[in-house]
Structure formats: C-alpha cells, structure tokens
Write a structure and sequence with these properties.
alpha+beta, BirA Bifunctional Protein, domain 2, Rossmann fold, 2 domains, eight-stranded mixed β-sheet, five-stranded mixed β-sheet, 20 strands
Length: 395
C-alpha cells in the first residue's frame, strides 16, 4: 500500500497522472498534471533564456552510426531501445543530435560559445523491476543543454551555470543543495591525460563558483567528469537532479571543429548541463517535498471560483475568464455540492485560493478570497492584482 505522501498516490488523488500496464514506465499526464509539467518547462525556459541558450529539437530515432560515434552503442547497449531491422535506436540522450547541429553550422570563434537547449523526450530500456513512478521511467523528458565552447572559456561557462542554480532550486522550496564532483569511472573513453585535464578544469570551476563539494571517485560519465546537484527534501532524503559535465571525448569522436581567429580548425569543449535532469522525476520530488500542497506559482489550479448559488454562476464564469486573461490558472466549481463541501474539495486538490462569489460580490464587482492564511473581500481589480502577485513565478 502506498504512503499518502508517495507521489504516485498524490498523482492519483490530485488527478495529475496515472500509469497502466500497457505502457510500463511511462506516464499518462492528465490536464491538471500537464499544467504542472508546463510550469516546470516555462521556469526552465526563463532560466536558459537568461543564460543565452537557444532552443532546438532533434530526432527521436537515429541510426547506429551516430550511437557508435558517441560511444553509447558500445557503453550503453542494454539501456537503449534498438530497432534491429533499421539498425537504429531511440535516443537515450540528446547530445549526439546537438553535435550534428554544431557540425552543420560550421561555426567560427565568433559563434562561440554556442549554447543549445532541448526538452528532449528520451527512452531508456530500464529493467521492469527498477521502474518506480516518475522517479524511474522508460520514457521521460530531459531539460538537456549543451555548450560548445573554446577551451579558455569553459571554466567561465561552468561558473556561470552554477551561479544561478542555488537560487533556482530555492524558488521551488529546496534550501539544502549538496554538490558532488564525480570523477573518472573504470570503463571510460579517452586517455588518462585528457581525464587529468578535464577533472582539473572542473575542480577549478567548482572552487571558482564557491561550491562546497565532495569528490565521488568512479562516478563520472564514460566521456567525462561531472558536477551533480542533489536536493534535500523535507524528509531529509537526497535527490540528484541538476548536473554539468565536462567532455573532451565526444568532440573528438564526432570530429567537431570551429575556425579560430587565425584560420586554424580547433576542437571545442563540450559541456552537458541540466537543471532538473528529468522533468518527470523533478515533478515527483516536488510533490513529495510539499506533500501535494504546492506553492501558488506551481499549483496546477491557482484559483477555484465558487458561486454561492446557481444565480451567481454567470458572474463566476466572467470572473474566471478575467483571471485567465491575467495569466492565472482558474476554473469555476458550480457543482450542486454545498459551499463548505466545495471549499473542502478545493483544499484536497491543493488549490491555494478559493474565490467565493455571491450576491454581495456580484453587486459590488468584488471577490471574497479564502486562503489558508484567512479570508478577505476585495474589489475585483484589487483581487486580481493581489492574486497575480501571490502567484508570480520567483524564477
């Protein structure tokens, strides 16, 4: 039996998503759940736009030659969904696709750093016994990003990524962030000299970013070391989410070059980075961290408008339209249930604000706002401004 604060139970109770046997390791997102999913996308989009990334989209299915070049065919064969007849595989990561965009662009030093981002739908053939709700899936979305940088600029790019990350997580309610520096694994690509250079650069950048980190021998990716950011939730559990990885290997494997100022062709440094790691997993962590009562800016429905009686339903609908026009996620609850029952249902659904409208509110063009902190009656314009401020995204 699931704990009441397990995200799978919360997903069902809050009508966010469900799973079924016909799609193992994959979620069916309901309208309320997809609203939360979109809020997470939008928060990440604001962050990457502020950091100079441009969003792209790459194919889901790539032929074997690409995965052999990247090393995934050799290093990750059991984790990929392979189509033998096509000699192709669904992508488990987006970096090979971004490498193709870089190569096709034929950039010069003036185009660097080239920062690409993608909400990449990826597939991994996880064993059925390891699947666990939104935490371990076969289909999920990575907020994948890659920076193609000149070598002297790589350290600054890493510091810049780390600079805003702690504030980003704090906006979601995570005050404690632990950082691990994951070093070379036993099975890896590239020479020891390349790994020495990569690890030293990443360590300098972590110090330059002011991070308090622990070293994790053997935990790096097969192509390079990485910084991993783990969030401590309200129950004291640690969840690895964001990452930035330093890679000298894939630019060599894909023969990536840019033209430097003097005309020579030079290999870029490749940085792999993510804020969430997986949108689905981050959503699950959020739900459990907040026990389903998400902050107003994250709530799938921010305002439920409840008419006191049927004759006030028209005003309630007009209010909901006005709220939506000002960017608020609102709906009308005009069921036959008593007002107290509708208040209870809104609370159970994790809705932070109930706007009650009756004869007085309609006459005065006002709203009666009911929140956990108390109740207040405001003119409609003032109520909208108050709600917009309360629901304003902090990132």
């Amino acid at each position: 039996m699931l704990d009441e604060h397990d995200h799978r139970n919360l997903g069902k109770r809050l009508d966010l998503f469900h799973f079924q046997d016909e799609a193992p390791g994959m979620a069916f997102w309901h309208p309320r759940g997809f609203a939360l999913y979109r809020v997470l996308e939008e928060a990440a989009r604001r962050q990457i736009a502020a950091q100079g990334y441009r969003e792209v989209r790459t194919p889901q299915l790539l032929r074997r030659a690409i995965w052999e070049q990247s090393g995934h065919w050799q290093s990750f064969p059991e984790g990929m969904f392979v189509f033998p007849a096509e000699e192709a595989a669904l992508k488990p990561v987006s970096c090979p696709g971004h490498a193709q965009i870089f190569r096709d662009a034929q950039p010069s030093f003036r185009d660097l750093p080239l920062r690409l981002a993608e909400f990449g739908r990826v597939h991994r053939d996880e064993p059925s016994g390891t699947l666990h709700g939104l935490f371990r899936m076969r289909e999920f979305t990575q907020d994948d990003g890659h920076v193609f940088s000149a070598s002297p600029d790589a350290e600054g790019e890493i510091i810049g990524f780390c600079a805003g990350l702690l504030d980003f997580y704090r906006a979601f309610g995570f005050e404690q962030v632990e950082v691990g520096l994951s070093l070379r694994p036993a099975a890896r690509a590239g020479s020891d000299a390349i790994w020495d250079q990569a690890e030293a650069l990443l360590r300098r950048a972590a110090v330059g970013a002011g991070l308090d980190f622990r070293e994790q021998p053997g935990a790096g990716a097969f192509y390079g070391p990485k910084l991993e950011f783990s969030l401590r939730d309200r129950l004291g559990r640690s969840w690895q989410c964001g990452t930035i990885q330093l890679d000298f290997v894939l630019p060599e494997r894909f023969d990536l070059e840019y033209v430097e100022r003097g005309g020579a062709r030079v290999r870029p440094v490749l940085l792999h980075r993510a804020l969430y790691g997986s949108l689905e997993r981050f959503a699950g962590v959020l739900l459990e961290h907040h026990a389903g009562l998400l902050p107003a800016w994250l709530a799938p429905e921010q305002v439920v408008v409840a008419p006191v009686a049927a004759e006030h339903a028209g005003y309630a609908r007009r209010v909901a339209v006005e709220l939506a026009a000002h960017g608020l996620r609102a709906r009308v609850d005009q069921r036959d249930d008593s007002l107290s029952r509708r208040v209870a249902l809104a609370h159970e659904a994790g809705v932070p604000v109930l706007a009650v409208v009756g004869a007085r509110e309609e006459r005065d063009a006002a709203l009666s706002l009911r929140k956990k902190s108390g109740s207040v009656v405001l003119p409609l314009a003032s109520a909208i401004e108050s709600l917009r401020e309360e629901c304003r995204p902090p990132v």
